[in-house]
Amino acid sequence: MSPRIRGLLAFRAWLQARPSAADALLAAGLLLVGLPQLFLSDVRVTGYEQMFTEPDALGGALVAAVTLALTWRRRAPLAVLLFIVAGGAVLAALRYPPSVPDVVAFLVAVYSVAAHRGLAQSALGGLLAFVYFVVMLVALPVPLSPMVFLTDCALVIGVWMLGRNLRLRRAYFAELESRAARLERARGTDARAARIEERSRIARELHDVVAHHVSVMTVQAGAARRIIDRDADSARDAMSTIEEVGRTALSEMRRIVGVLRTERDMERAGGELAPQPGLGDLGELLDHVRETGLSVQLWIEGEARTPSPGVDVAAFRLIQEALTNTLKHAGAQARAWVRLYYTEDHLTVEIEDDGPGTATIMAGDEARPGHGLVGMYERVALYGGELRIGPRVGGGFGVRARFPLEA
Fold first, then answer.
1. Residue 360 falls within a domain, yes or no?
2. What is the CATH number for 368?
3. Does any domain span residue 189?
4. Which tops the pLDDT comparison, 367 or 407?
5. How confident is the model at residue 254 (pLDDT cuts 50, 70, 90)?
6. Residue 336 and residue 330: Cα distance in Å, rounded?
7. Residue 371 has pLDDT above 90, yes or no
8. Residue 256, helix vs strand vs coil
9. How far apart are CA 49 and CA 42, in angstroms?
10. Do residues 74 and 111 make contact, with C-beta atoms less than 8 angstroms apart?
11. Which of 29, 34, 87, 108 could form an SS bridge with 66, CB 3.0 to 4.6 Å?
């Protein structure tokens, strides 16, 4: 880029940052062009020497004052228009002929009121300017044809409409920019909310996986410790179950944490994201629980329907968490029942046990609710379901959740 172009761009930026200076330069340019023409012209050449006063220093000063008022046309456009109208009336009263600077200053003032003020002030200024202009044309000692009169009036109206349209256009673009900024802020807020929700989801998943599998491993380890001296084969089976459950827990934890990895990380690790568990994996879950010694029975009523993926995972995790609580609080000697009720629009899940762990669970919940119970409520509520947790009639504990099949 040449130095001349850079200088012009810098000067333009300087003027944009200082609008009053740009307006002052506009007024000075009008005077520089118009004043010499005003004093060099001879009214006697026009044949109206008896109608106009010969331009003099007073007339030049008035024209200069009217034109230089444009310096404040953006700060106070209505006041500038009133000043120019008053100056024009004084020039007409002293019978000075119209000149380029004061006529152009009047039109610029009309444009400024329309472009830089609201509808009320711009309409008032436009009406005042139009009335003043019509009066000046009528009072002008020079005869005007109807076509010239209409053309001059249309010029004033056109200048006002031009300023008004430019103001509306600027307001439209400003609204677009404001809307884009709001959308950007909203997108950032949504992204933060999504991250928070994803962290909560992963925390629930990790809690369910760790709590269930560690509970199973703890029960199996205790059983192996008690029978290792008198039944080594059963103890070895229990240790094998612990090993299998531990590997399953590690596999599920890697899958959950793997959601946070990028595709490149997954390619380097050579792994794939496994699907989330669902009610189709309920048989495997119950087999793991039965290996701890807990008797679990499953009933399915109604025509089995495929729930939405989120409800499928939520129902599975609810059953997993409830059976884990049964193992921890009721013990492996208790019995548990899992029931699935399918209707046309809903899925009801019930998990009950006959163990003595009700008091322990409720006391802990009242003192400081654990992550398991809180996670149950959060998970069910997330998919628009209803959850009831409490003691069971006849002893034991029960969990009942009702999910819509389409979350």
1. yes
2. 3.30.565.10
3. no
4. 407
5. low
6. 10
7. no
8. helix
9. 9
10. no
11. 87
